Each structure stands twice: as C-alpha cells, then as structure tokens.
Amino acid sequence: MPGEAATAPVQTVQASSCGGNIVTTPAQWSPGVGSCSIFGSKGRKVTFRWNVYGNQNTAFNVRGFDSKGKAYWHKCGTGGGTCVVPWGNVAAGVKVRGWTPGGAATIRFTY
Questions:
Q1: Neighbours of 97 (CB within 10 A)
Q2: Model confidence pTM above 0.85
Q3: Which of 8, 27, 75, 104 is least surrounded by Cβ atoms within 10 Å, i.e. has the fewest?
Q4: Domains of the chain, residue spans
Q5: Which residues are CB-neighbours of 41 under 8 A, at least 6 positions away?
Q6: What is the mean pLDDT of residues 85-101?
Q7: 64 contacts: CB under 8 Å, gap ≥ 6
C-alpha cells in the first residue's frame, strides 16, 4: 500500500561451527589454530568441545585471556570433553595446543 514500508521475509541462518584439528606427539606441545577469530567483551567466556582420537591421556590447552587482557594457557584436561575458557574484552585468533604421553593422537575441537 502507498505510504507503508515494504517488509522482506526474515531468514534465520545458523552460523557454521568454528574449530580445527591438531595431531599431537610426545616430543613437545603440538600447536594449532582455530578457523575463526573471536571478538570478546567484558566477562566473555568461550565454550570449546573437543574429542581425542588415539591415546585418551592426550592433554588439550586453549589460549585464554585474564581480566587485564593478558594471554595464558587454560588447561582443559585430558581425553576430551567441554572446556569453558575466559576470553574477556580481547579480539584475537584462537590458539590451542595438545600433547600426548605416548604414540600419536588427533584432537578435533569446535567452539
């Protein structure tokens, strides 16, 4: 009708999941990066989900940030699971690392 604004249908699109893979060895911490950067905000926390394929004693760490924006390695444990990492008011790429005590393993993570 004249004088009325046209409205377009609204389409909801689900964002693709971000993540990555790391192949770990016992020689040293194996580094990895995520497929998406994160734009933080005060008090923000990011949930990482991870699975281990191989040695279930494989450890996983995610670089997080303290309340002053200083980076540190957040220990997520071994064997896979869910890990909530403090991110804060920082815009940065995701860095992760993994280590296995014997053999090799692959870590698949999403966030």
A1: 18
A2: no
A3: 8
A4: 41-102
A5: 88, 89
A6: 97
A7: 46, 71, 72, 73, 74, 85, 86, 87
